[in-house]
Amino acid sequence: MKIEIKNQNETEEIAQRLAAIAQPGDVIALHGDLGVGKSVFSRAFIRAMTTPDEEVPSPTFTLVQIYETEACELYHFDMYRLDAPEDGLELGIEEAFGDGISLIEWPSKLGAYLPWDCLNIKISHNPADQNARHFEFSSQGRWIERLKEIALV
Ligand SMILES: Nc1ncnc2c1ncn2[C@@H]1O[C@H](COP(=O)(O)OP(=O)(O)OP(=O)(O)O)[C@@H](O)[C@H]1O
Ligand SMILES: [Mg+2]
């Protein structure tokens, strides 16, 4: 399930559409290189679920930032600096994955702690256009059906 997008606005729009259908227990794993747009996606998603002017600091050093939404708590993780997968437990991943909605940058750092039914979004650069991106969606869970319902794939 792949889509090509032209610019940052389109990345933000995809994030907003996903935020509109997000439910407690959802985990969205954002894969991709440095500077590809994981934080841009996360900021748009968080603002869509909170308020348009919500301050969204980078969790680079804290590793997690937590937001209140109407439905549940929204967790924004950046695992780049996680030393070992089990250190994720101290960040509250069990609570987050159970009852919250989770966005995870650098999800591979969690190893086997990444839930089997998460939505994987792999974002990649387009060498021919600095504002274009390639989005690839994959999941073992029911995500692909859900994405079809909102015409995302
Ligand atoms: N289509 C696009 N989608 C997202 N960001 C884009 C796009 N085109 C250009 N950009 C730019 O790419 C950069 C993405 O930065 P961002 O911090 O979101 O990356 P990141 O994947 O979170 O990196 P890191 O791994 O360092 O956390 C921003 O400067 C943004 O303006
Ligand atoms: Mg980032």
UniProtKB/TrEMBL annotation:
Pfam families documented for this protein: TsaE (PF02367)
Protein origin, superkingdom: Bacteria
Keywords: ATP-binding, Cytoplasm, Magnesium, Metal-binding, Nucleotide-binding, tRNA processing
Tagged with keyword Glycoprotein: no
Subcellular localization: Cytoplasm
Family, similarity comment: Belongs to the TsaE family.
Protein name, as recorded: tRNA threonylcarbamoyladenosine biosynthesis protein TsaE
Originating species: Terasakiella brassicae
